[in-house]
Amino acid sequence: MNVDEIRAKLVAERNELAERVRKIEARIQRSEKPLEQDFAEQAVEQENDEVLDALDQVGRKELESIEAAIKRIDEGTYGSCVQCGGEVSAERLKVIPYADKCRKCAS
Ligand SMILES: [Zn+2]
């Protein structure tokens, strides 16, 4: 796979993820409206909120990683480890296209 193909894939992934994060955030906002439920329902609702918050954070982190990878492609530094400057193996990039560290630095 060449870099252009990887970039296109990352952009598609970013758009999809951005949409997912947007939806999660819309749901979080909705659930922040005043509660008019009994206590048991509130407890369930709160649990859902925590799950949503966690999803939101994971999604945002992934989104940042993808954005950063696209930026590295544009800057011509994609595939170089941000820590040691060494090469991030093609195999590793295949599994994690937005990996910014070589296997050694990531572990
Ligand atoms: Zn490294």
Ligands in the model, by name, code or SMILES, are: zinc ion
* Highest-level CATH class: Mainly Alpha
Low-confidence sequence ranges: none
Average pLDDT, all residues: 90
Order of helices and strands: HHHH
Structure characteristics:
about 110 residues; Four Helix Bundle (Hemerythrin (Met), subunit A); mainly alpha; binds zinc ion; single chain
Describe the structure.
- There is one protein chain.
- The radius of gyration is 19 Å and the shape is elongated.
- The protein contains four helices and no strands.
- With 107 residues, the chain is mainly α.
- Helix content is 71%, strand content 0%.
- It has a single domain, classed as Up-down Bundle (Four Helix Bundle (Hemerythrin (Met), subunit A)).
- Bound molecules: zinc ion.
- Zinc ion binds next to helix 4.
Summarize the topology:
Blueprint: H1 3-31, H2 39-75, H3 90-95, H4 103-106
Bound molecules: zinc ion (ZN).
Residues 81, 83-84, 86, 101-102, 104-105 line the site of zinc ion.
